[in-house]
Amino acid sequence: LKRIKLTTILCISYDFISRIETTTVGIYVLKFHDGSQDIVIVLEGQNVLQGLDNFALATAMLFGLMYALNLNYPPEMKYTFEVLQKEVMESLKLQRLKSQQLNHTEMLHSILLYHMMNQ
To answer: Which of 88, 113, 114, 116 is most buried, most CB within 10 Å of its CB?
Structure first.
């Protein structure tokens, strides 16, 4: 399985531009000499989104862009994307279930408290 292309580049240069042009899908972390950094999403050789705060956000935005633009996963990374998507969706499903369980528990506590106070 190939990985999502993640590259850290120490400064913007012509090398960076040529890398973008040959990237089908990628997330680039640009590190500048002053210590700052920028995270860039590249699709089909084009810088489509930049100024992202962290890699997790960039990954989520990449999935959103691919869905919104109706892009297929690159064949060489198809299974990587599918596994990542499945794991993220399972994680979100578990969070939603935990949230629902907490809401039901809070509701039961409120009902019990109401009945105890009105006896």
So the answer is: 88
Give pLDDT tens digits for 49-71: 999 988 888 888 888 888 888 88
Q: Residue 41 corresponds to which tokens in the numbers above? A: 């999403």
Q: How far is CA 83 from CA 27, 30, 38, 62, in A?
A: 18, 26, 27, 15
- Beta strand 46-52 with 25-31: parallel, antiparallel or unpaired? unpaired
The H or E element that residue 67 is part of is helix 55-68
Q: Are 91 and 82 in contact (CB under 8 A)?
A: no
Beta strands (DSSP E) in 1-119 are 5-9, 25-31, 37-43, 46-52
Do you know the residue count of the chain?
119
Q: Helices 78-117 and 55-68 sit at what angle, rounded to 10 degrees?
A: 110
Q: Is the model more confident about 47 or about 88? A: 47
* Cα–Cα distance measured from residue 106 to residue 109, given in angstroms and rounded to the nearest whole number: 5
